[in-house]
Amino acid sequence: MKKPSRKAAVLKADKYFSLYIREIAKKEYGNCPFCRKEAIVHCFHFFSRSNYATRWDENNATGSCAGCKYRMEFAPYPFNKWYADQHGQIALDELNKKHHTIAKFSTQDLLDIADKYQKLYEELK
Question: Which of 38, 64, 81, 88 gets the most CB atoms within 10 Å of its CB?
């Protein structure tokens, strides 16, 4: 059997992490935790997915509606305040610190992340 490419492993990890986070948020909040009006349709990252140190960190993600995810790009303050109100300013500061570290994952590590979140997601469904 051919080993999946690194890109395929990242996509699989992203897919199942997103499905899991959205399902958890739906069970916890029902609708978007920020505006409370819209349905949860996106995996919302408080710090961008560009850094692998926090890309698949459950503390860095929740589910959100499309509008709130879009607004985060231009006005992050209300969302960071929400996080600090929920988890404390120290937790937000620690997450920010972690986001600025370097994390390296092998292709197998990424496949393990994908498998972990696929199993967790399937257990929730």
Answer: 64
Range 70-104 burial, b when 16+ CB lie within 10 A, else e: ebbeeeeeebbebbeeeeeeeebeebeebbeeeee
- Interval 23-39: pLDDT, tens: 999 999 999 999 999 99
Distance of CA 76 to the CA centre of its chain: 15
pLDDT, one tens digit per residue, over 77-124 is: 999 999 999 999 999 999 999 999 999 999 999 999 999 999 999 999
Instruction: Please check whether residue 49 is in contact with residue 18, taking contact to mean a CB–CB distance below 8 angstroms.
Output: no
How far apart CA 96 and CA 37 sit, in angstroms, is 28
